[in-house]
Write a structure and sequence with these properties.
Elements: E1 4-7, E2 14-22, E3 35-38, H1 41-48, E4 53-58, E5 64-68, H2 74-77, E6 78-83, E7 89-93, E8 100-101, H3 102-105, H4 111-120
Parallel strand pairs: 2-4
Antiparallel strand pairs: 1-2, 3-7, 4-5, 5-8, 6-7
């Protein structure tokens, strides 16, 4: 089940939101960097919660990106199945073309709010 229900107090519009944290050693390249998921995990979201929004929180720039699951195309965004270091199957996905900055997806989250949050968390941009 998604992590949150986000409700806009003015419009009363609501969204199901799943938040995932991913860390990278140097940088995140939206075009080239694949994101790992446990085997079958994203399929569950696509089958059961297609209306949800994935929010990726990264340790590197751009720090926060959103993906509308309704826009995920298995034939385009799924890249491969692989075995991780612990011998467990994982999947590599790349959502290039459908990523949105959090302030684009949720207009009440401004660039200024995001910058202040990063400053509070002591994250260097």
């Amino acid at each position: 089940m998604p992590d949150f229900v986000v409700i806009d107090e003015d419009t009363k519009k609501s969204w199901l939101v799943e938040v995932k944290y991913r860390s990278f050693k140097k940088y995140f390249n939206a075009r080239k960097t694949n994101i790992a998921f446990k085997y079958g995990h994203l399929k569950d979201y696509l089958d059961l919660w297609k209306e949800a929004i994935l929010i990726f929180n990264f340790n590197v720039n751009p720090f926060c990106l959103c993906v509308d699951l309704a826009k995920v195309n298995w034939n385009i965004h799924f890249k491969k199945i692989f075995e991780n270091g612990a011998g467990k199957l994982e999947e590599a996905w790349n959502f290039y073309g459908i990523y949105r900055f959090i302030y684009e997806r949720f207009p009440r989250v401004t660039k200024d709010n995001l910058e202040k949050t990063l400053h509070i968390l002591n994250i260097n941009r």
